[in-house]
Amino acid sequence: MSQTPKSVWAILLVVLVFPGAVFAQPTGALPAAETTRFLHAGMTAARHQLRSGIFRASGNWTEAHDSGEVIKSSWEVYCAFDYDSDAFRFDQELQLPLALPEGVRPGKVPIRLATVKTKVAFSTDGAVYWCDDESGMVELWGDSFETNPRLKVFDVRSVGLLGVFSFGNRVSVDEICDIRSRLKVRDVTQHSGVQRILYEAVESKVLIALSIDESEGFTPIRTEIRDLAEVGSNPTFEQAEVVEDDSVTWKLIDGVQVPESMQLVAGTDRRELAFEWESVNKPIPDELFQKEGLGLPGETFVIDHRLGRGIVIGRLDGKPTAFSNEPPLSANRSRTWIGSAIIGLLLTIGLAGWIILKPNSGRSSG
User: Fold this and answer.
1) What are phi and psi of 332, to 5 degrees?
2) Which of 87, 105, 137, 228 could form a disulfide with 289 if both were Cys (CB 3.0 to 4.6 A apart)?
3) pLDDT tens per residue across span 42-91
4) How far is residue 128 CA from its own chain's centroid?
5) Distance (Å, rounded) from C-alpha 297 to C-alpha 187?
6) End-to-end CA, the chain
7) Cross-strand pairs, 209
8) 186: closest CA among 31, 40, 23?
9) CA–CA separation, 113 and 89 (whole Å)
10) Residue 344 above 60 pLDDT?
11) Are 211 and 196 in contact (CB under 8 A)?
12) Are the C-beta atoms of residues 270 and 167 closer than 8 Å to each other?
């Protein structure tokens, strides 16, 4: 009688003890997938512990200009947020290239930089926006507001999952984890308490290695992105070309892990910030999300776009604007005044026409 191979007994044991494992997914894929879901859930829950806060951050924004010159700009950020109240404030000072003189081609003259200051606040009332390089007025917006691409706004809870080219919107950690969950997971490895998920984006032919420190509040501490396009079939992570390498450090404040520093590198493009936290999970004054709390001079004009077109409604200090000696009009009163002016103009034109066309009663006959 022939002896049953040991490998067969091993398979039978797995089927008896874990009947769903063999038929659900290939052996080895299920643990990686389950671990990835666990780590995603842990990151999301841990980041959601940060409900409100105020921080300042300073660093550099480095990228290649159209001329080929690499520009390193200073980058300053002030941010206040209260997620339970759906309130978010983001101020930025960023050096941007000045427009070239007319007729001058890129690369012919050195690039000159100018600091552009921008402030934006979102609340349930809409958006408040100001930029010294645009209208210079405080702008009130409703749902139609779109952030200027020059404003590199971001959700601080997503730091560690953001890449070099991820700035300019407030993508959440939930949205990023949802996108990552759709990628193929090659494997999950552990070293010294740090879990590393290796994703494969099949269509774009890249590998993404995300390192998560589970013991320190599921903090994402490093992301490496490697290109598979120029290597042979089924290459290892080490064989693929490095296209981006990002790292984040964290600190514990009042029981919550918050970013301390961020360095994202993709070729000549770099994003670097050091964070200084003023408040973590403490009450935030409502004024910070209103036009009066932007810290601008009282003589700054206010323009309201919420009625579909811009209407100057006064100054921040409530004093009359240069357009009128009367107190600033509200948006509704502005509409009433404009309507009355149009009616008065029509009546004047009609009266003038009647005077011109009416019969001349003093003209003699014959």
Assistant:
1) -70, -40
2) 87
3) 999 999 999 999 999 999 999 988 778 899 999 999 999 999 999 999 99
4) 16
5) 56
6) 145
7) 198, 224
8) 31
9) 25
10) no
11) yes
12) no
Q: Are 268 and 262 in contact (CB under 8 A)?
A: no
Q: How do residues 231-248 score in pLDDT, each as one tens digit?
A: 777 778 888 899 999 999
Question: Which pLDDT belongs to residue 111?
Answer: 80
324: Cβ contacts below 8 Å, ≥ 6 apart: none
Q: How far is 311 from 335, CA to CA, in rounded Å?
A: 9
**β 301-304/138-141 pair status:** parallel
Residue 202 has pLDDT above 80, yes or no: yes
The answer to whether the CB of 62 falls within 8 A of the CB of 96 is: no
Given a cut of 90, whether residue 117 has pLDDT beyond it is yes
pLDDT of res. 270: 96
CB neighbour burial string for 37-61, b if at least 16 within 10 angstroms, e if fewer: eebbebbbebbeebbbbbbebebeb
pTM: 0.77
Under DSSP, is residue 107 helix (H, G, I), strand (E, B) or coil?
A: coil
The structure tokens 């000072």 sit at 93
CA 145 from chain centre, in angstroms, equals 14
Own/partner pairs, 206-212, CB within 8 angstroms, 24+ separation: 206/243, 207/237, 207/240, 208/180, 208/183, 209/237, 210/161, 210/180, 212/39, 212/42, 212/43
**Are the C-beta atoms of residues 46 and 258 closer than 8 Å to each other?**
no
CA angle 297, 300, 302 (to 5 degrees): 135
Distance separating alpha carbons of residues 52 and 80, to the nearest angstrom: 8
Asked whether the beta carbons of 251 and 240 are under 8 A apart, the reply is no
Which amino acid, 341? A
Q: Is the pLDDT of residue 211 over 60?
A: yes
Question: Residues, the chain, total?
Answer: 366
Amino acid at position 278, single letter: E
